[in-house]
Write a structure and sequence with these properties.
heterodimer, A: mainly alpha, 6 helices, B: five-stranded parallel sheet, two-stranded antiparallel sheet
């Protein structure tokens, strides 16, 4: 069922900008149109690009926001996971809890 | 003169379309039968919830979605919404970390949820350090937001499972005062546990908390949750807080509980979202349980009619529940993709909801 909903109506998570829009809903309680507009403005793209995996693969790569990795699509040396979240927090202008925790635990 | 309906005259026969019942069983219905179901459902929902029925254009669109022979359907390009996946993942991949990575990397989920198979705050309290460690590890490896989820399950605080007297035994005896005192005692324990677990998981790096199936034990269940939401919002201003409901209206088990002057018993989604956003939630999930004896078209029309007024008063994102047995998705271990995708599309297209 998770797959069904992802294909029928989901933004696509980090294949696209679904996680970024989700962060604005979670952290700021933004309704969907506002959250999409906010993220699109930060990324410098259109709202439709946000759920387009072709467009977002390029944009995420350029901005170091983390991309899906598989055997034919590897990006060693590029930010992912925690390191990508440092950049996502800066891009969106919202603190990410785990990034703050990481910073604190790493002593930086 | 030949009458308007000469019995000897051949009449067109409506084609049968494969459709589903609320339990997942496949049936065949005509377009006319589907329309009749949709119209009956919106009328019934409007009468029960005291809300407007769906309009002609909305009914036509719903009918088009359900009177299709397609194995799968989807929203238009650009209309995709955020998926918050309560209790997502399979739990069969070996570890929670692998499970969540698979959900992120392979299923493309927008919000992940770490959860334990004992999905109650009361139970999680006893294993909090273990869950905190998993959350810390998960946050190191995942890019998308990860919230922690469990259910309030207030009834677990009554005997024989908990310390309070069992109000479900006191009420049939007519001991209203005793029952309310038992509920009050249970609520004190419950809110403390929700806050304890919520603070613990947010201190471990969670992006948010999910109170899933809220109100399952009625207004007191809802009230205990709202108090925890308010506390967590004050302490963690940037945390996501999702409140997902257990049913379309809040059952009055206590009956006198109010949230900032609004009586909780009997609230429907439009009022539920208002108390949730006032308490500090950032995502609200209305839930309308399936009627297994009705078609999925009937159930979707009913759910959308009940939820629609919430969209108009919400200041926060609304993610209607479309999991097993809610929101027009059959109550079945393997919800058929034809039915689940129709439910998803119908809610997004007609409600213009912010997520699912």
């Amino acid at each position: 069922m998770d797959v069904t909903h992802a294909l029928a109506a989901g933004m696509g998570g980090m294949r696209t900008a679904g996680d970024l829009v989700a962060r604005m809903q979670m952290a700021r309680g933004m309704r969907l149109p506002e959250a999409k507009r906010y993220v699109a403005d930060k990324l410098g793209c259109t709202v439709r690009d946000l759920s387009d995996s072709y467009a977002m693969e390029q944009i995420r790569g350029e901005k170091g926001l983390g991309r899906i990795l598989d055997h034919s699509n590897l990006h060693p040396g590029e930010p992912n996971a925690m390191t990508a979240k440092f950049r996502i927090a800066e891009l969106l202008g919202v603190p990410i809890n785990s990034v703050e925790r990481f910073r604190e635990l790493a002593g930086s | 003169m030949v009458g308007a309906h000469d019995s000897r005259e051949a009449r067109p026969v409506e084609a049968k379309i494969p459709s589903r019942m609320g339990d997942g069983f496949m049936v065949e219905m005509t377009r006319g039968e589907l329309r009749a179901d949709i119209e009956a459902a919106t009328d019934e929902a409007a009468r029960k919830a005291k809300v407007p029925p769906l309009g002609p254009d909305e009914l036509d669109h719903l009918l088009d979605i359900y009177a299709s022979r397609a194995a799968f359907t989807a929203v238009d390009i650009g209309d995709q919404v955020v998926l918050s996946c309560d209790g997502g993942g399979s739990k069969m991949t070996g570890t929670d970390l692998q499970d969540l990575l698979e959900s992120e990397q392979r299923l493309g989920q927008d919000i992940l949820e770490l959860w334990h198979i004992e999905y109650s705050y009361k139970a999680i309290k006893t294993i909090l350090p273990f869950q905190q460690q998993v959350m810390q590890n998960v946050q190191m490896m995942c890019t998308v937001p990860v919230q922690y989820g469990a259910q309030p399950n207030l009834a677990f605080y009554s005997k024989p499972d908990g310390p309070a007297e069992n109000w479900f035994e006191l009420l049939p005896r007519g001991d209203i005062v005793g029952a309310r005192a038992a509920v009050d005692e249970a609520m004190e324990h419950a809110t403390k546990d929700f806050i304890y677990v919520g603070e613990g998981m947010l201190d471990a790096g969670a992006d948010g908390m999910d109170f899933d199936t809220t109100g399952g034990a009625g207004d007191a269940d809802f009230f205990s949750t709202l108090r925890a939401v308010k506390h967590l919002r004050a302490k963690y201003p940037d945390a996501g807080i999702e409140v997902g409901m257990a049913g379309e209206f809040v059952i009055g088990v206590h009956g006198e509980l109010e949230w900032e002057g609004r009586r909780l018993a009997g609230l429907w989604p439009a009022e539920q979202v208002q108390v949730c956003q006032d308490a500090g939630a950032t995502i609200f999930g209305p839930a309308v349980n399936i009627r297994t004896g009705k078609s999925c078209a009937w159930n979707a029309a009913y759910s959308i009619t009940v939820c629609k007024p919430a969209m108009e008063v919400a200041r926060i994102p609304v993610h209607p529940n479309v999991g097993e047995g809610v929101g027009g998705v059959p109550v079945n271990g393997y919800p058929p993709e034809d039915a689940a995708s129709r439910a998803a599309r119908a809610h997004v297209d007609i409600l213009k909801c912010d997520g699912l």
